[in-house]
Amino acid sequence: MTWVTGLTSDDADLLTATDLGCRRGGRRVFSGLGLQLRAGQALWLQGANGSGKTSLLRLLAGLAPAAAGRIDRHAPVAYLGHTNALKDELTVGEALRFLCSLHGPVPDDTRLRAVLERVGLGRRMDFPVRKLSQGQRRKLALARLWLGEARVWLLDEPYDALDRQACALLDEVLQAHRAAGGALVLTSHQAVHLPGLDTLDLSAVAAP
Ligand SMILES: Nc1ncnc2c1ncn2[C@@H]1O[C@H](COP(=O)(O)OP(=O)(O)OP(=O)(O)O)[C@@H](O)[C@H]1O
Predict the structure, then answer these.
(1) In this predicted structure, what is the pLDDT of residue 13?
(2) DSSP for residue 169
(3) Which parts pass through the membrane (predicted)?
(4) DSSP tag of 5
């Protein structure tokens, strides 16, 4: 079994996966994967296209069943997928409120606006989602994460479509999340510049 361990042993695990196996379309993607995610940890999933990074994130989020093994979640988990889960027919404010409502209480408008300001969408509360660029959609989806209370963030290509300034802001937010006792697992085809980053190469556990 391949184990990824994070910080020192006195930190409680936020999430563990034991002897995890994944199958897609009748084919084994990976097997025997073990993972411990602890407060403050950031884990970068690496591996070739098709090695199972998105599949693993979805298993950890509980969005798909594992073919083998078990996952123990000891803290609330939030997942950000490729598609951002945004409804085109809503306004920016409505979409953000809707996303927040799926995971807990909806913050008041002052707080929503403050986070939207931070991602450069402060004047777009009433703007239709369908008119946002790809990068703006990504920022809106990310805004939901830092308004929520999940301690474990599972992020599929979070830097995708973001400009340099937004990438730097995302780094700041991820660091603040870790410092506050959160943890994250992410995929990224571009370099990740977070300090103390752990890596897991899924090519090493992928089925031949
Ligand atoms: N809907 C599906 N039905 C059947 N097989 C699928 C499906 N989606 C993905 N797969 C297969 O599952 C395997 C893992 O895919 P996954 O998307 O998890 O890989 P990945 O490492 O995230 O890839 P990438 O780097 O290209 O994003 C691949 O072999 C892929 O062909």
Answers:
(1) 92
(2) H
(3) none
(4) -
Q: Assess whether the C-beta atom of 57 lies below 6 angstroms from ligand 1.
A: no
CB within 8 A of 191, min separation 6: which ones?
none
Query: Is there a contact between 183 and 42 (Cβ–Cβ < 8 Å)?
Result: yes
Q: Is the CB of 58 under 6 A from ligand 1?
A: no
Closest ligand 1 atom to Cα of 55: 18
The interface predicted TM-score of the complex, written ipTM, equals 0.96
pLDDT digits (tens, 9 = 90+) for 162-186: 999 999 999 999 999 999 999 999 9
Residues of the chain with pLDDT under 50: 1-10
Strands (E), the chain: 2-4, 13-24, 27-38, 42-46, 68-73, 77-80, 152-156, 183-187, 198-201
